[in-house]
Amino acid sequence: MKNKLIKMSSIAAIVAFGVTGCNQEANTPKTTEAALTAADAIAFVEKVEQEAVALNLEGARAAWIYQNFITDDTSALAAAASKKSTDAYVRFAVEAAKFNQVDVPADVRRKLDKFKQGLVMPAPQDEAKSVELAQIKSQMGAMYGKGSYTTKAGETLSLPQMSAKMATSRDYDELLELWAGWREVSPQMKPLYERQTELGNEGAQNLGFSDVGAMWRSGYDMDPDAFAAELDRIWGQVKPLYDDLHCYVRDELSEQYGADKMPEDGTIPAHLLGNMWAQQWGNIYDLVAPENADPGYDVTKQLAAHNYDEIKMVEQAETFFTSLGFEPLPQTFWDRSLFVKPQDRDVMCHASAWNLDSKDDIRIKMCIQKTGEEFSTIHHELGHNFYQRAYKHQPVTFQGSANDGFHEAIGDTIALSVTPKYLKQIGLIDEIPDESKDIGLLMKMALDKVAFIPFGLLVDQWRWKVFNGEITPEQYNDAWWELRKKYQGVSAPIARGADAFDPGAKYHVPANTPYTRYFLAHIQQFEFHKALCEIAGDKDAIHRCSIYGNKAAGERLNQVLEMGSSQPWQDAYVVLTGKPEMDATAIIDYFEPLHVWLKEKNQGKQCGF
């Protein structure tokens, strides 16, 4: 999963959740503003939206300049713009809560709820506590950002360097040292995280929510508890496929490292899966690849053979969208985007899609490598851009995805159409490999997409229980590993001490970035892909389908994109899939050939955890 920064120049850029939820009347703060009326609410919303456009443009420009010209000065300017926006949105949320008891039109209520839900870690309405919360956030961010580990051999490594080694090393002891070494960065965060939870819960209660977790879950047009139950239902649909993948991978790792390295409880030691957090397993594909898995072509080599440079790669991705009926990208996209890493300055190369002015100033920022993986990534990034442009006619508050998983899901939906069929249509390959070659391609994708799903679920499962008090500070680490075992079948490779705070070793925890969006995106992308393939009338297996060139699929996709977050996400689902609820059976259908193969390979093995 790519942690992309999608710069949406709208309230959605600050408001982390895309849709409204239940008002939680029982927890609504009583207001002394008895005289407030619907007219007051409408006037307030209009004023906020006007201010938001200017704030977002200023903030987006400052962030763009900083990420493309990294200096102390541009960093300071970006930080100042970010603080200005954050302060404003705190004010918007507090003011919006005053209208909790006022009867207002549905669209106005939706906007008011968005203002409240936009604060990921809301500060209490007390200046000293607000300052304390900001300081805690800064402290934890610094601890994580400056984190490093000095190996037994005396080499000091940053997290990217450690991650690169974990991706390629097959030395059990080296992997264990790196895994444990990185987790030395987080114990000092634990008391800070405990205090932050207290302050954030107080802030959430000021806005009418029982705790921060309930506030996060309120952004999904459902009762917060019902939403949590829905996630577990969806996971139950995927679990049989995951369990068979887990069993096969565990057996292959047992052959690689020795059966004595595998715990008796059926779990996989967390450091052996090629990733610092065992969240994606694609880096160990070489250890588990099926025999004869080579599809018979290499996209990277084909790009070179057909003289694709960085710009031509982007132009081809644009052609994918115009083939569906979308208008070409504006000239400003080509003039202002970053496609190639400059030789004369530092830039942030992490691929990202940007919308600066809530209208047509859309861009991507990438240091493109001429590889097959980057070719798919470009299609993904442009998916964000075409989504951003499609909803530009919505009020700024509704310029965002239908729920916070949609943006990533739409980008990945497009990338799922970068199939051999598509590569043949655009002349990159001459022949589509026969179906016997599909197992390797599906395995490679499953190690990233299917393996990620339980991790995408459990991060917020842990936080929600922390926020509501079900998990106490003394239980932070034990509860974390209980969830890792329950959902992933992954275990800590060594005993974890009482002072450990392993959740803090994952960026999104100290950064307070909600994680359910990534779980949703991994479910939704397969649903969307299947639905669009059916609309396109493609009779191939879902994993072989591409909607390239199909105007009917493009028209239906555009209908959903144009909605932004103006309607409940269930309404967007009906437009695209014909149903108002999520359904993970599309993933099962997509990976069916691999699942059949896994079941055959697992016969006679001891599976389960």
Primary descriptors:
Peptidyl-dipeptidase A, 3-stranded mixed sheet, 609 residues, 7 strands, Peptidase_M2, disulfide bond, metal-binding, metallopeptidase activity, 2 domains
Summarize the structure.
This protein folds into 2 domains: 78 residues; 354 residues, no CATH class. The chain is built from 24 helices and 7 strands.
Number of helices: 24
Spans with pLDDT under 50 lasting ≥5 residues? Answer: 1-33
Number of domains: 2
**How many DSSP-defined strands?**
7
Rg estimate, integer Å = 24 Å
Alpha-beta content class: mainly alpha
| Spatial order of the strands forming the largest sheet | 1-5-6
Q: Main sheet?
A: 3 strands, mixed
What percentage of the residues does DSSP assign to strands (E)? under 5%
CA-to-CA gap between the ends?
24 Å
The geometry reads as: globular
Mean pLDDT: 92
Helix proportion of residues, in percent?
A: 55-70%
Q: What can you see in these coordinates?
A:
One of its GO terms (molecular function) is peptidyl-dipeptidase activity. Keywords: Disulfide bond, Glycoprotein, Metal-binding, Signal, Zinc. This is Peptidyl-dipeptidase A. By secondary structure, the protein is mainly α. Helix content is 56%, strand content 3%. It has 24 helices and seven strands. Strand 5 and strand 6 form a beta hairpin. The relative contact order is 0.14.
Describe the secondary-structure layout.
Elements: E1 7-8, H1 11-14, H2 38-68, H3 72-97, H4 106-117, H5 127-145, E2 148-150, E3 156-158, H6 159-168, H7 172-182, H8 190-206, H9 212-217, H10 224-257, E4 268-269, H11 285-288, H12 299-305, H13 310-323, H14 331-336, E5 352-355, E6 362-365, H15 372-390, H16 406-416, H17 420-425, H18 438-467, H19 476-488, E7 490-491, H20 516-536, H21 551-563, H22 569-577, H23 585-590, H24 592-602
Parallel strand pairs: 1-5, 4-7
Antiparallel strand pairs: 2-3, 5-6
